[in-house]
Amino acid sequence: VHYVNCEYIWDLAHTQRVEPAKKAAQVIHKKLLGCLQSQLGLDTERRMKKLPLMLLSVSMAESFKDFDADSSIRKVLEMCCFMENHLAKTLAEFELKLEKEVLEPLNKLSEEDLPEILKNKKQFAKLTMDWHNALNKWVTHSVHFVVSCGSFSLLHTVDMVIHSLQDQYSADLYHFATKEEAYANYFIRLLELQAEHHKNSHDFLERNITDVSPVCVTTDSQKNNSRGKVYGEPLLTHLYDSGREIAVPIQECVHMLLHTGMREEGLFRLAAAASVVKRLKSSLDGGVMNHSEFTDPHAVAGALKSYLRELPEPLMTFELYNDWFQAAGKKELTDKLEQFKIVLKKLPSENYNNLRYLVQFLSCLSEQQAVNRMSPSNIAIVLGPNLLWPHMEGEAALLDMASASSVQVVAVVEPLIKYSSSLFPEGTVPPSMFCLLVFRGGVLGVL
């Protein structure tokens, strides 16, 4: 009797937490399911389709097509459309992680692990009662000097089963005790995932709202207020004078190319009339742009190349010239991308923002390579030497653009374009990037 009473005390002390844990896991699992906006069991892309944020993005995409290309409302809706789409993807990724790392473990805990412990507890209690009944019969017979072999046999059998179940039950409770902190971590993980999701969404919005705001204020009069020329000026000076984050030639040329040049064969490779390129450069320098006046995408691409080439310092900087080549020299792709990320972090913020903006556009351009013949490699060949060159003076610098080092530049720029989504995880794209979806056969079809 003593060991049963001790076992009962031990059982009571350790099972006090099992039932509340099961109840907490069940209730929180149910409430969390109610918080989800997507369907369980789907991958990220399929989850996105039914999210309210995605439906909002689709509505914005349908709406901005009704405006002319120069409308401020259209430009803002285009950017908002992209941003809502990205937020929907972020939410879908968050809910997928939540399902795998919190919901599934909680469900297993409440429906399998803890019920098994409670089931063993119930069996243990029943057998303990049977043991007491058998013991009472045996004691009664003993008092009357009538010892029943059947009663003694039953007592012995129940005693053996109790010992076996006691061991199993003790092991279950010990396992629960050792895993209690791990179970508590399910709820901590919930908070961590929420914090990560809200931080990513906040950071993304904070970065991109700065791209939306200039759309509303870039009237002709404000453009004329930009001080000084653009071509040949240091990047930081131009950005400071114009109050922008993205250089005017890069932003304006990308905007025009998204509308007119994505399917143009040999973009950045074929030259345009020098007089047209010169006139476009003058317009960009003067801050007065009429997009409808410049319909030749090769002239626009030429003006963009010219801006990059005429920068006093390359967009990818003199200081990091050797760092880029060392990163590109890594044999393993994983190592190469990690080294690229390290070098990218070394860039000044203004260089990084403009390089990211440009490279993500070039990545989008390369997706049309079946039509425009501009693969990441081809783009890197024609544009790479305008992004990175050594710190040399005069003719030496020009000669270097045709030397072996320009071939090395291709090895740097090509993977930047090819793996832009990994190297620039922020998700920022040019404000008119969603126009590209129209060229692919309609926003709705792509989404």
UniProtKB/TrEMBL annotation:
<dbReference type="GO" id="GO:0005096">
    <property type="term" value="F:GTPase activator activity"/>
</dbReference>
<dbReference type="InterPro" id="IPR047165">
    <property type="entry name" value="RHG17/44/SH3BP1-like"/>
</dbReference>
<keyword id="KW-0597">Phosphoprotein</keyword>
<dbReference type="GO" id="GO:0032956">
    <property type="term" value="P:regulation of actin cytoskeleton organization"/>
</dbReference>
<dbReference type="GO" id="GO:0035020">
    <property type="term" value="P:regulation of Rac protein signal transduction"/>
</dbReference>
<feature type="domain" description="Rho-GAP">
    <location>
        <begin position="233"/>
        <end position="424"/>
    </location>
</feature>
<keyword id="KW-0343">GTPase activation</keyword>
<protein>
    <submittedName>
        <fullName>SH3-domain binding protein 1</fullName>
    </submittedName>
</protein>
<dbReference type="InterPro" id="IPR027267">
    <property type="entry name" value="AH/BAR_dom_sf"/>
</dbReference>
<dbReference type="Pfam" id="PF00620">
    <property type="entry name" value="RhoGAP"/>
</dbReference>
<keyword id="KW-0963">Cytoplasm</keyword>
<dbReference type="InterPro" id="IPR000198">
    <property type="entry name" value="RhoGAP_dom"/>
</dbReference>
<dbReference type="InterPro" id="IPR004148">
    <property type="entry name" value="BAR_dom"/>
</dbReference>
<dbReference type="Pfam" id="PF03114">
    <property type="entry name" value="BAR"/>
</dbReference>
<dbReference type="GO" id="GO:0005829">
    <property type="term" value="C:cytosol"/>
</dbReference>
<dbReference type="GO" id="GO:0007165">
    <property type="term" value="P:signal transduction"/>
</dbReference>
<dbReference type="InterPro" id="IPR008936">
    <property type="entry name" value="Rho_GTPase_activation_prot"/>
</dbReference>
